[in-house]
């Protein structure tokens, strides 16, 4: 079998085998690129009028408890705390993906919203589907995608190289 024919077959089958996972990665990647621009994906980061860091962790937990949708009762309900000293806020992310933004000076709740970016990221990297999907599906798909890129460049270059060789002979 000629290399060009083999290359086309590998390119075609590689594209078919990776179509769904690559589509998932591309679509979620587009959403993640827009996360700062689209409040539906990630709530906009608020800014305190006075960016002091005087609120204690107890104050932050008390404020987070006051947001019923976040359903935070104890520290066990908290997935992550992101403190932004320059903006004077702390983002408390509940395990149920609700985010409570709290003024670190006053302990006042500034914003409560559902945060989809972490969920979209877990779909993007494959960890959403199963523990092994990241390593056993999405990693091989990435390797095959790199092979598709290489074979695609070869398939694109082949006619140009052939044309150049014909010109040299003539």
Give your account of this protein's structure.
By secondary structure, the protein is α+β, with helices and mostly antiparallel strands. It has two domains: 1-40 and 117-170, no CATH class; 43-115, no CATH class. Helices cover 51% and strands 15% of the residues. It contains four helices and four strands. The chain has helices at 3-33, 57-65, 117-125, 133-169, and strands at 78-84, 89-94, 98-103, 109-114. A four-stranded antiparallel β-sheet has the order 1-2-3-4, covered by helices on one side. Strand 2 and strand 3 (98-103) form a beta hairpin. It is elongated. The mean pLDDT is 93.
**Cα distance, first to last residue?**
28 Å
Question: How many beta strands in the DSSP annotation?
Answer: 4
- DSSP helical segment count: 4
Low-confidence stretches: none
- Beta-strand percentage? 5-15%
Total domain modules: 2
Strand order in the sheet with the most strands: 1-2-3-4
What sequence of helices (H) and strands (E) makes up the elements?
A: HHEEEEHH
Radius of gyration in whole Å, from Cα?
A: 25 Å
By helix and strand content, what is the structural category?
A: alpha+beta
Mean pLDDT: 93
Specify the biggest β-sheet: 4 strands, antiparallel
**Broad shape:** elongated
The percentage helix is 40-55%
């Amino acid at each position: 079998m000629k290399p060009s024919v083999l290359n086309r077959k590998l390119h075609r089958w590689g594209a078919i085998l990776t179509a769904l996972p690559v589509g998932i990665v591309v679509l979620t990647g587009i959403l993640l690129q827009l996360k700062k621009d689209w409040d539906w994906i990630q709530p906009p980061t608020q800014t305190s009028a006075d960016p002091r860091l005087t609120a204690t962790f107890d104050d932050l937990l008390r404020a987070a408890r006051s947001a019923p949708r976040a359903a935070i009762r104890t520290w066990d309900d908290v997935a992550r705390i992101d403190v932004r000293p320059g903006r004077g806020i702390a983002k408390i992310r509940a395990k149920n993906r609700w985010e409570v933004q709290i003024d670190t000076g006053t302990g006042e709740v500034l914003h409560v919203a559902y945060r989809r970016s972490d969920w979209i990221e877990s779909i993007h990297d494959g960890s959403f589907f199963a523990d092994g999907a990241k390593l056993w599906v999405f990693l091989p798909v990435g390797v095959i995608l790199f092979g598709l890129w290489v074979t695609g460049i070869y398939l694109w270059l082949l006619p140009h190289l052939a044309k150049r060789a014909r010109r040299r002979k003539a």
